[in-house]
């Protein structure tokens, strides 16, 4: 636990004045994006193709079969490497809204993960710019094969008004997708995604293969038993299996150690019985981030 806390604290204090590093405008700056190494990294990232992603999945499967001590050592090494290059965090819709309020440009992209694992084009990924020029990230993306970025049926990048992007994010919650924010060579933040199993590589890596490539959210879910109708919708939609098994008539109950604080369970709760608590206010998980 101590080692985990040090990793997280160092990351957040270095890149965001403590927690909620993803709300620090400096992490979206045009100056960071102008770095040639970072621009090459972004170009490579969006042109990896399904073959490389499947190769990564195979490597993770092999890692799962290694002895526990060696497996744990390699997983920590992978997590540290990802923190320096491409790392994320689960965020609720309230923080998505704050990020979009800061954004000057929003571009929707096809998800390479879904293309790889589900064999279909689904546009759940967003590129963001907060810089005054509002076109730095888009210029990089224009250099990439458009047939990957947005599919064969639409020409050019798909720019969206911020209000429309937020509405799409809300509809994603109804489908059981959680929101995540991502770096491209940390600390530059350029991606806002909507993730779910089995189609998301980040969730497969973190949840299935137990190799964290994203932080848990700054929150945990809590259920008001007085309001709960025992309908079971929260248990069905939770992408992290954080709701304890129940029988008919049982009130919903959250396993806070499994909860990532995405908040999407609230979107299907007919009684509005679910709220988000600050993770730091729940001692059991106050330092549980990975």
Q: What would you report as the Rg, rounded to the nearest angstrom?
A: 19 Å
Number of helices: 12
Strand order across the largest sheet: 4-2-3-6-5-1-7
Mean pLDDT: 86
Q: Can you write the helix and strand succession as a string?
A: HHHHHEHEHEHHEHEEHEEHE
Q: Which range best describes the helical content: under 10%, 10-25%, 25-40%, 40-55%, 55-70% or over 70%?
A: 40-55%
* Uncertain residue ranges: 148-155
Shape: globular
Largest sheet: 7 strands, mixed
What is the β-strand count?
Answer: 9
Note the beta-strand portion.
5-15%
Count of the separate structural domains: 2
Structural class: alpha+beta
Distance between the termini: 10 Å
Topology diagram in text:
Blueprint: H1 2-16, H2 30-33, H3 36-45, H4 49-64, H5 68-85, E1 88-91, H6 93-102, E2 105-109, H7 112-117, E3 125-129, H8 136-142, H9 146-149, E4 158-159, H10 162-174, E5 178-183, E6 189-195, H11 201-208, E7 214-215, E8 219-223, H12 233-237, E9 274-278
Parallel strand pairs: 1-7
Antiparallel strand pairs: 1-5, 2-3, 2-4, 3-6, 5-6, 8-9
Helix pairs in contact: 6-10
Any descriptors?
290 residues, alpha+beta, Alpha-Beta Plaits, 2 domains, 12 helices, 14% strand
């Amino acid at each position: 636990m101590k080692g985990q806390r040090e990793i997280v604290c160092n990351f957040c204090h270095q890149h965001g004045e403590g927690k909620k590093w993803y709300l620090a405008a400096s992490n979206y700056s045009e100056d960071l994006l102008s770095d040639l190494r970072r621009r090459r990294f972004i170009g490579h990232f969006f042109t990896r193709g399904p073959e490389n992603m499947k190769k990564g999945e195979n490597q993770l499967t092999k890692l799962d079969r290694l002895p526990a001590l060696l497996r744990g050592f390699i997983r920590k090494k992978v997590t540290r490497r990802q923190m320096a290059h491409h790392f994320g965090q689960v965020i609720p819709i309230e923080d998505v809204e704050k990020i979009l309020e800061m954004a000057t440009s929003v571009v929707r992209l096809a998800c390479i993960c879904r293309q790889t694992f589900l064999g279909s084009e689904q546009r759940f990924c967003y590129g963001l710019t907060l810089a005054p020029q509002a076109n730095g990230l888009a210029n990089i993306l224009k250099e990439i094969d458009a047939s990957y970025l947005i599919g064969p049926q639409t020409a050019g990048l798909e720019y969206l008004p911020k209000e429309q992007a937020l509405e799409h994010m809300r509809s994603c919650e109804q489908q059981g997708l959680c929101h995540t924010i991502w770096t491209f060579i940390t600390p530059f933040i350029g991606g806002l995604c909507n993730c779910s199993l089995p189609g998301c590589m980040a969730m497969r890596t973190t949840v299935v293969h137990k190799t964290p490539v994203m932080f848990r959210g700054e929150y945990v879910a809590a259920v008001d038993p007085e309001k709960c109708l025992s309908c079971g919708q929260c248990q069905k939609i939770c992408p992290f299996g954080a709701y304890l098994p129940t029988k008919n008539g049982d009130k919903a109950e959250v396993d806070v150690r499994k909860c990532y604080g995405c908040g999407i369970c609230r979107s299907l709760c007919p009684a509005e019985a679910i709220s988000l608590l600050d993770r730091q206010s729940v001692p059991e998980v106050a330092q549980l981030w990975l």
